[in-house]
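Blackboard transcription, Thursday session:
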Amino acid sequence: MMDKKEFRHVGKPLDRVDAVEKVTGKPIYVHDMELPGMLYAKVLHSPYARARIKSIDTSAAEALPGVKAVLTGKDTDHKIGLYLVDKRIIASDITRYQGEVVAAVAAVDEETAERAISLIEVEYEELPAVLTIDDALEGKILVHEDINELDGGGVFFPQKDSNIASWNKTIVGDVEKAFEEADLVVESEMYLPAAAHTPLETHVAIAQVDPHTGKIKIWTSAQSPFAVRQLMAKSFGMSESDIQVIVPSIGGGFGGKAGVHLEPLVTLLSKACNGRPVKLQATRREEFNQLPSRAAMRSRIKTGVMKDGKIIAFKAYYDWDSGAYADYGANVGRTAIYSGAGPYEIPNVEIHSRTLYTNKVFSTAYRGFGHLETHWAIERQMDIIAQKLGMDPYELRMKNVLAPGKRTVSGEIVTESTGSPADCLEAVAKEINWTGYQSGEERKAQLKTGKVRGKGIALLQKAPSMPTNTATSVIMQMDGDGKVKVMIGAIDMGQGANTVVAQIAAETLDIPMEDVEVVWETDSDKHPYDWQTVASKFTLMGGNAVIRAANDMINQMKEVAAQVFRCNVDKLRHKDGHIYHVHHPHKRLPYSKLARGYIYEDGTAIGGVIIGRGSYIAEGLTFLDPETGQGLPALSWTFGAHGVELEVDVETGDIHILKFASAFDVGKVINRKLIDGQIKGGVVQGIGSAISEGMKFDEKGRLRNPSFTDYKIPTAMDIPDEMVAIFIENPELNGPYGARGVAEHPMISVPSAIANALYDALGINFYQLPLSPENVALAIAEHMKDEKIN
Amino acid sequence: MCNHNKERSCFEYVDSQLPRVPLELVVNGEKVYELIDPTMTLLDFLRHNLKLFGAKEGCGEGECGACTVIMNNRTVNSCLVLAVEAQGAEILTVEGLSKDGELSILQQEFIKYDALQCGFCTPGMLMSARALLDRNPNPTIEEVKEAISGNFCRCTGYESIINAVLSAAKREREELR
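(Written on the board underneath:)
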């Protein structure tokens, strides 16, 4: 029913509301901001993965003209952390990764601050470091010697005297027994390296501390103004209301700007400079080296399957090389226990997800966090199983895919409203003319030409990993002319939240788009609360809050109109900016006549200013059982699938993507133009993770590629010849106009789809990312050698 | 508390300390004359001295293209150009693309094709596209890709940008010639 209705704004390919600003270079990013009296900060980093700071001499830096403050670990003992409070704002005794902040300077300009940094003398004692997953698990050296003091709050499970920041588990049925019963057991180990978000605007924050009241004002390039406020209040022992966080335009986030980052450090610097504003902007090198990344991950999967393709058992160890601090990493690891078997129904499941401390740059959320990583392994494993069964990998997936009535690994029963992964897979298979793997003979014939083609498919799913009480809210005020201003704590980092909010508000109120203004530059003192702009949650949660606020406005107007028309409220309807009587349509009042109270001819006024309020909290979520992982973690699932056709140069290992088709069950498209951009942008980011990206560390734990010169993200030359975005619309009953979130999903399973196509092209299974030309060429050479020997 | 430079003013400006040099150039059609620190980059000059914040610094190493401006009809990474190298030059930045409140065709097509998301790369991207269309009014897809290959965009996946540039080229050929 819902999808048959004609909508006025919803579903239309409307221009984004901030487009004119953005094509004229007008938006103000924190990057661009200058405040009167502002000072500039620079940071000194640890050159070692793990070291003891024996002494720091800051006297020369302090004596430099123009330097206003020099801070070291001695000046602060505040600790901060998103889920596990484990990170000092400035390292004191021990440094835990190369890039960790050891000292910070505020000075009159960047050059002076930089010069001051170079004058700080630190004597280190280099210590042996934990640099691999196995070192971390062995636990001979502890990254955090005080790990036993960490409190996971019943959601995360730090293990005593170890490097395991959290060990989350799912146990359903009896996998060991099922492996015995299975016709085939397939085991594989896979790996993907750490990756960098590389937003074009690096992390940057300005803080100003009132020296008299201690109140803090922060401008930051962040996805989470309210989380910044909450975490800083906790760390500094302050009231949230004494911290104001403002987010103007933000130059990309991708999860890397969720949580709290540079804000506490600039705050300390401002305090040390008698409250002058201090700006700290990460250099590109610091963006790679000091600020967090996506964790590297090793997966070991064992799958038990019957001859007909039915998967009966799935056991996985996901070990996350999560770096020196837990940050978002613990929550990234947690996604694996409810989503780490993929969009399949499997009766016996055992998943262990271990977020490990290592002496490397720490990790955080990255677009679809936890899911690109686990789906690299899950969707490769599906193809490997299909190969061993001699089955079409499409059929294998269809045989096991989640559908209404089936259970997810955490015990949720899928309904029609959950969406359909099968519809997505079917759509992409059709789009790329999938007919199964090519035969060995066909492959051999192609190999001789020097260029081989192959096709691959992969499924994906994601539900946001969020606290059970995740909430958002909106305030909408009507101006005298019936136009509406929307105050919502969304951060529009390019995904189009403000446009979608405007569309939903205009749709619900049935007014022109131009009559709705979303007031951006989110300010925690002025905008109502929102948890964070993460997890592809905004369309669903923010959209629902907006509908509630718009309906609140309509109800308020109807109450006044009922008095004017002397009728019952339930006789009134709204349409095209008017309230009217259902039986007497000539009795109608424009919103403008009700916006600030209705005025009778004699001047008497009734009613009042129309202000709508909408709030939405994730309903029904529960903690997951610590031993079995059972519960309800997911507000809403979004399923999708990719299909790819590519060509590999046998000589160079270069992958050329001919076509990339992606389908998502989005429930309802709110804005066709914006959603298309989300899909294609995400796919290309996924191609980066698949082919060219990956952080490289040397034997001492130093990052070897902290620059765009050595860390290659896709350029316009690297995109597929053709990209196709397909939208399936099985409505989500809980979604605004039936919509689900899809901002992160396009990235997930892109690497696995590409590697599956590489198998089809070459007959080679890849187990590690990236699928760089050198890795592919070496694998081909190795494969040819083996073929000759055989 | 700030306990530095007790005997000195808190507001002194520190730079290269080298003698100022005169710089004369034309930016977005307007003559500019200033005495500047000779170590200053063109990007810093545009942002700090002229307060033109359209060009961004994404890396400071000439890799990302966010600072792209047009100098004497050619694109440059303004973070790698010294301001003094622009002596006598004509510079066009994103702020110079629209006139009297009317968006240029290229800007209109960027909106129509949704060739932007976060907007941080957009000013540089527009300048690379502008320079391409100035020298080649009828580019192929491959030529567009090559022309913007020095401009990173982490959001859009480039396809919408390429389509916007091709469409702008067509419209400019039809409407401006």
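Lecturer's comment: Chain B has a mean pLDDT of 92.
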